[in-house]
Amino acid sequence: MKPTVLDLFSGCGGFSSGFMQAGFEVVGFVEYWKPAIETYKLNHPNTKHFGFDITKIPDATIKEYEGKIDVIIGGPPCQGFSMAGKRDNNDPRNKLYKHYLRFVKIIKPKLIIMENVKGILSMEDNDGEKVINKIILDLIKLEYHVSYKILNAKDYGIAQNRERVIITAKKLNLYPEPQAEKINVMQAISNIPENFNAHESIGITEETKQRIEILEFGGKLSKKYNFSRQRLHPNKYSPTVATKPLFIHPFEHRLLTPRELARLQSFPDGFLFQGSKTSMIKQIGNAVPHKMAREIAEKLSFFK
């Protein structure tokens, strides 16, 4: 019997996809954004949608799954913690991790894996206490042994420099070892068939195209953005894939397509996206890289 998984704040299903490919059975997910839900259901039709708003899912509903879920995974919204954002202590999204812990408290899974941005390690709550310390303390109170580590997507065969904090419960060595083989941008995005799902060019003005034509590798359209709107170097990693704006193709005078961004996030070509090009880009940027999720899942050999 396969170990069972529940994915909270699932987005389009990057975390779930990696775990499924590693031999786990994802039985349910929670997500509120419709385009992401549609994409999730398209790729995982047999997985139950537990609900839209996690804050409104009653304890009684969660109680039905007590002892029936082996692993709870997911990434609570990180916008309030991100170094690229305002880091507003009053951002209501900063509190949503508490509902993740509510599921943990009621279901009592064997293992918990939570993903978030590095900024969560330094973010303080209104009382001056670090959010990461509150999460760890709450999990300890629930009788879990907790550890965390910063993982970089580029270390797991992904053409992207994307650092994320992975928090696990249980005092076990769950983190995959970095792979020796590295993947660069062109290795990731080349050979995509024409008319493939999500492989449609993003419209740009003639003026923007002319500005792109003179850009060298690493050149940017605007100083407004730290790392986006730049021409990617073909033989290097891409910067972190975000929800907006887009990167520029290394050789062609255009922005990357959603499918090319999905390749940088290591989604397999069989993973199909739904919604507008804008919503696809947002889904892809918010996702946990597929291959990193799979590497984490495959490390959990004690379930096999």
Radius of gyration: 19 Å
Strand-residue fraction? Answer: 5-15%
CATH topology of the domain at 4-178 and 288-303: Rossmann fold
Quick one: overall form?
Answer: globular
Which strands sit side by side, in order, in the main sheet?
Answer: 3-2-1-4-5-7-6
Which tags fit this structure?
304 residues; Rossmann fold; seven-stranded mixed β-sheet; 7 strands; 13% strand; globular
Describe what you observe in this structure:
- By secondary structure, this protein is an alpha/beta fold.
- The chain has a domain at about 5-180 and about 290-304: Rossmann fold (3-Layer(aba) Sandwich), CATH 3.40.50.150.
- The chain is built from 10 helices and 7 strands.
- The chain has helices spanning about 15-20, 35-45, 60-65, 95-105, 130-140, 185-190, 205-215, 260-265, 275-285, 290-300; strands at about 5-10, 25-30, 50, 70-75, 110-115, 145-150, 165-170.
- A 7-stranded mixed β-sheet has the order 3-2-1-4-5-7-6, with helices on both faces.
- β2, α2 and β3 (about 50) form a beta-alpha-beta unit.
- The radius of gyration is 19 Å and the shape is globular.
- Residues about 80-85 have low confidence and may be disordered.
